[in-house]
Write a structure and sequence with these properties.
alpha+beta, Chitinase A, domain 3, 2 domains, 6 helices, 44% helix, 249 residues, 7 strands
C-alpha cells in the first residue's frame, strides 16, 4: 500500500503539471546529465527512488521520462481529463491487485497457523475442564472462570460496563509465561471497561473495590484465534490476577 501511494503521488503530480497554464514561459532545456551540484545529486536520488517504486509495475520508463520532460515544458500528449481517467483506472486496478494479494497472504497464514490454533484450543479446553473443579473456582454462563484471592470489605462499589477503573494486574499464559504486568511497571492501569477484552469487561463487574481475583479467560473472551502480536499466541487461554483499586468514574 505504501508503494502504491508513492506511485500515485508521482503520477498524479504529473497530471497536475500537465494542467498548468501553457502560456507560462518554457523551462530552459538542461543540456547536461552530469552530477555536479547538490541539487543534481538530489534530482538523481529522487529518480532512483521513483524507479524503485515503478519497476515492478510494467510501465514504459521511456514514456514516463518523456512525460516528465513534456510536463516541464508545459505540454502533454494527453488531456488532463484523460490523465485523470487513466490514473483512476490504474489506482483501481492496483487496489484490486493488492486486495487479492492480501487475501492470499491471509489464507496462507491461516493454513500455516491451523495446527497451532487447534493445539492451543485443545490445551485450553483441557485446562478449563480441569480448573473449573478446583476449590474456589467459579464459572459464569459465558465460560469465564474466576477465583477470589483477596476479598475486600465487601461494601465497596462494583463497576458497570461503562465505568473507568484503576487496577493492578498480571497476565500469564498457561505455561506460566508472563506477558504483561502493571506491578512490574509500578504503575496501576486505568481504562474504560467497554474498551478491553470481553473477559475483563465481564469479570471486573463481579468485583468490589479492594477485591483481588484470578481470572481464567477462554480465548473466545480474550484475543480469539488471532492472538495478539508475538506475546499472546492464537487461541490462548489467559490467566490474570486483577486487583480493583478504584472506580474512577
Amino acid at each position: 500500500m505504501k508503494s502504491l501511494k508513492i506511485v500515485l503521488i508521482v503520477l498524479l503530480g504529473l497530471s497536475v503539471t500537465f494542467a498548468q497554464n501553457k502560456n507560462q514561459s518554457k523551462v530552459k532545456d538542461q543540456k547536461t546529465s552530469e552530477i555536479k551540484t547538490q541539487n543534481d545529486s538530489i534530482s538523481y536520488a529522487i529518480g532512483q527512488n521513483i524507479y524503485s517504486q515503478l519497476k515492478d509495475l510494467g510501465l514504459n520508463i521511456d514514456l514516463l521520462a518523456k512525460s516528465i520532460k513534456d510536463g516541464s515544458a508545459n505540454k502533454s500528449d494527453l488531456s488532463q481529463e484523460n490523465c485523470i481517467k487513466v490514473l483512476t483506472a490504474f489506482q483501481t486496478k492496483m487496489q484490486e491487485k493488492q486486495a487479492a494479494q492480501m487475501k492470499a497472504e491471509q489464507e496462507r497464514k491461516r493454513v500455516e497457523m491451523a495446527p497451532i490454533i487447534e493445539k492451543n484450543k485443545k490445551d485450553g479446553d483441557t485446562f478449563l475442564a480441569e480448573n473449573k473443579n478446583k476449590e474456589g473456582v467459579k464459572t459464569t454462563a459465558s465460560g469465564l472462570q474466576y477465583k477470589v484471592l483477596v476479598a475486600g470489605p465487601g461494601t465497596g462499589s462494583t463497576p458497570k460496563d461503562t465505568s473507568k477503573v484503576k487496577v493492578h494486574y498480571k497476565g500469564t499464559l498457561l505455561d506460566g509465561k508472563e506477558f504483561d504486568s502493571s506491578y512490574k511497571r509500578n504503575q496501576p492501569a486505568e481504562f474504560p471497561l467497554n474498551q478491553v477484552i470481553k473477559g475483563w469487561t465481564e469479570g471486573l463487574q463481579l468485583m468490589h473495590v479492594g477485591d483481588k481475583y484470578e481470572f481464567y479467560i477462554p480465548y473466545q473472551l480474550a484475543y480469539g484465534e488471532e492472538g495478539r502480536g508475538e506475546m499472546i499466541p492464537p487461541a490462548s487461554v489467559l490467566i490474570f490476577e486483577v486487583e480493583l483499586l478504584e472506580i474512577v468514574k
